[in-house]
Amino acid sequence: MLSTTKNGGAHRTAIAGRRRVAVAALIIALIVTGTGCNGESEEINVNAYDSDMGTTSGEAVDTDFTIDVSRLDGSTATIPLMEATLKKLFGSSEGLVHNRTDLAYRLLIGGDDWLGEEFGEKDAIFVTYPSEEESGLAEEAGIELEIIPVVKDALVFLVNADNPVTSLTAQQIKDIYSGKIKNWKEVGGRDEAITPFQRPVNSGSQTLFLKLAMGGAAPMDAPTELRPGDMSGLIDSVALNDYSGGAIGYSVFYYASEMYAHDEVKLIAVDDVVPAAETISGDEYAYLTHYYAVLKGDTPQDADVRKLVAWMLSPDGQKTAVEAGYVPLDPKDLGAAGPAEAYGYYGSTPENTTQSKGTGGSAPVRYGGAAEFYNPFLPEDGMKLSDLFYDGVNYIDYINRELRQKIDGSEWELEPKHRFTGIPNDYPLFNLRKNEISDGRQVGTVLDILFDETTPFFDVNSFGGIIDAWVISINLPLDLSPYGAVWKIDYEKEASDSDYLVLVPQVTTYFKGSNAADAKTNEGLRWLYERAKKAGFFGPDPDYAARGMNDSAVPELYMVRDKLIVLYRGSDFVAGQTMSLAFNLRTGEEVDMPVFPNIKASSTRAPMGAASYNASLAIDGNYETAWCEGVPGPGIGEWIELSAESKQRVDGIKIINGYRKSDEAYMNNNRIKTVTITAEDGFSESFVIPAGEWTWYVGIEFSVPVYTSWLRLTIDDVYPGDSDSEDTLISEIELR
Fold it and tell me: Measured between alpha carbons, how far is 267 from 154 in angstroms, rounded to an integer?
């Protein structure tokens, strides 16, 4: 349970538990007093966890204690371990924060203040073995470090999935990183240069690499671009780097196989032993290590944090670790979680959650029509997940990788119930939809995965029971799916003349690395920003600046077919002005936007005081003005028509439906429900605009591109307003 306690007048959030469990074993730890890494294996008796004693020894571990979660820290790779442990013991891991390994050691040891952190304010950290520098810090501070192994792990080496090499000897790895072996053909691979990635000094995996793989020998120096700052960056670099299939890097087994598994990398065997839970637990694999609980040597024997570590070494604690995907100290505990607890949800297995082949053909297709924007959560016409991906693409690995990242990093703080083991490749609850306008991170075709209240992975009722299902949305990349578009949107921050930031979008369409079209598109996006800045679009705007953000600081992104449209709206300094460009995502080339300057309507409502409702107000760029039909009744059959001097290509339109002058005006007046759009050469398509109080923005993509000099919208049916007024209005029409 959660409780708040006082200690010396200071409040702290704590987790309390009241039960006793049996523990097998005597805990023996290594005391470090400034002794650094010497290139040899760690001098730790991991058999201190006494496997010969069976599952219990009759000795009870007292768990009637309180843990101040804020005084725990650790590495990225031990976050799931500690979350699982705290939830198992106390029902919650609220307040748990892990910094990276080097900072965690500093926060435990103490010393000079750095980055405003309070050093010496941690009671225990859960990390890899200390580096020479970290051991030196302990020695300088006069601190003894007590290092207790809690689970096993291993240093693993990974290469691009397309690399034919599957195994290296320990000596070959050492020779690669010392510069003696420079080409993959020297170890049975292709005639291709080897690009060895490393990690920053004092990172946990770098310390392990120097200790276990290099054995005290100095590796080649690596430039900054070959030393990614975090473990995910290294894996992404090997998977998606600009060095073709020639990259090699390293990580730890748990992170590379559980936390950040990637379809485009593979773990290689060392001396013909493949890194796996079984080979690591059985001490068969070469580069064995552990995750440790590290305490100060003078921590009292009856301290609560020691009771926590004791429980982690108990059979229940080791079982909890296995359930979270870690390798136990004793091979006997490897099956502690049982296969039913690890898989079986939705009929999943280790195979069908990681292996699949797409069947969506080899040519891009379009998915469009406004009626298809809002599908129910059911596949249409027998559609399967495999149909959404090109032939041969391992789609379930991609989907589960994206799901895992979104679940673990959910901004909604989903309350997990079980580690995410993946959905099977025939999972039925999904929806394909068009996200025509960007929500900041997604634009284009989006794959929605539905989890109902029966999901074992997280609690969909985390928000007080207000929902009974949860949707996780995944972008479909251009190179994996015939329906693909933008995979990722990043933003570069730029200062403005006011006290807010302008965010310049940069898009990535390929999952498997960069491409020339993206580079050209992003160059154009940067050029548009510079042009808008020069025109004063980000000028002084005191009302918005007071909030720290200006609506024009983030451009609007739209997708219509293969066309990405980027639009900046001017601040109050240049109110009413817009600036936009459109790009073909497949080529990166700028494409022309349709310009239809002329407009007319079948009828127009008479002015009311100073307010007018003529047709030109539907293309004035102002959402607070509108065209209103002018016949008695709701205006069924009335139309508004845009025209130009010559034919232009039009892929779709955006409608600001209803009267957006205010919320009251929007709700009181009619809104279009069904509209028919006609154009030259007999083009005619009807669209149903979705119901709902706030569906005022409507993006419509035509089934085919239309080449026309005029376009007419005819009102077929309406949603009635809340007042007695029967007027039907359109605030804005924009052609795409």
Answer: 12
Instruction: From residue 691, give the alpha-carbon distance in Å to each of 185, 220, 459, 677.
Output: 63, 63, 29, 19
Q: How crowded is the C-beta side of 489, counted as CA atoms within 13 Å?
A: 24
Strand 671-679, strand 697-719: pairing: antiparallel
Does the pLDDT of residue 425 top 70, yes or no?
yes
Give residue 542's pLDDT band: very low, low, confident or very high (50, 70, 90). Answer: very low
Is the Cβ–Cβ distance between 33 and 144 less than 8 Å? yes
Tell the CATH topology of 153-288.
Answer: D-Maltodextrin-Binding Protein; domain 2 (3.40.190)
- Which residues, 6+ apart, have CB-to-CB distance to 620 below 8 Å? 576, 732
Q: Decide if pLDDT at 10 tops 50.
A: no
Q: 218 phi and psi, to 5 degrees? A: -85, 130
- pLDDT, position 499: 54
What the block records as the tokens of 559 is 């997708």
The domain defined by 598-735 carries CATH number 3.40.50.300? no
DSSP 507: E
Q: Which two tokens stand for residue 87?
A: 């939830």
d(CA 67, CA 71): 8
> How far is Cα 430 from Cα 402, in angstroms, rounded to an integer?
14
Give the span between the Cα atoms of 144 and 128, in whole angstroms: 16
Could you tell me the CATH superfamily of domain 2-151+289-341? Periplasmic binding protein-like II (3.40.190.10)
Domain ranges of the chain: 2-151+289-341, 153-288, 345-475, 488-591, 598-735
**Gap between the Cα atoms of 265 and 347, Å rounded:** 26
For residue 728, what is the DSSP state?
Answer: B
Place of tokens 């890899």: 128
List pLDDT tens digits, range 558-597. 887 778 888 877 654 444 567 888 899 889 998 888 888 8
Instruction: Round to whole Å and give the CA distance between 687 and 69.
Output: 55
For 724, residues 6+ apart whose C-beta sits below 8 A from its C-beta are: none
The number of beta carbons lying within 10 Å of the beta carbon of residue 688 is 14
**448, 444, 395: which is closest to 424 by C-alpha?**
395
Helix (H/G/I), strand (E/B), else coil: 560: strand
The domains spanning 2-151+289-341 and 598-735 adopt the same CATH topology: no
Give Cα 209 distance to the centre of its chain.
28
Name the CA radius of gyration of the chain, rounded: 30
Q: What is the pLDDT of residues 247-275, one digit of tens each?
A: 999 998 988 887 777 767 889 999 999 88
Q: Give the torsion sign (CA, 53, 55, 57, 59).
A: positive
User: Cα separation of 445 and 74, whole Å?
Assistant: 38
pTM (2 d.p.): 0.56
Give the best-scoring range by mean pLDDT among 359-373, 478-492, 704-718. Answer: 704-718
Number of Cβ atoms within 10 Å of the Cβ of 724: 6
For residue 175, give the amino acid letter. D
User: Alpha helices, DSSP H only, in 72-208?
Assistant: 79-90, 101-109, 132-141, 170-178, 204-208
Q: Are the CB atoms for 46 and 329 separated by under 8 Å?
A: yes
How remote is the C-alpha of 499 from its chain's centroid? 29
State percent of the chain over pLDDT 70: 77
- Distance (Å, whole) CA 525 – CA 334: 52
User: Distance (Å, rounded) from C-alpha 580 to C-alpha 567?
Assistant: 4
Dist CA 75 CA 92 (whole Å): 19
For 373-527, strand residue ranges (E) read 415-416, 430-435, 444-452, 458-459, 469-475, 488-495, 501-508
Place of tokens 């090499």: 165
Reduced to 3 states (helix: H, G, I; strand: E, B; else coil), residue 709 is: strand
DSSP helix/strand/coil, 412? coil
Tokens of 582: 């459109």
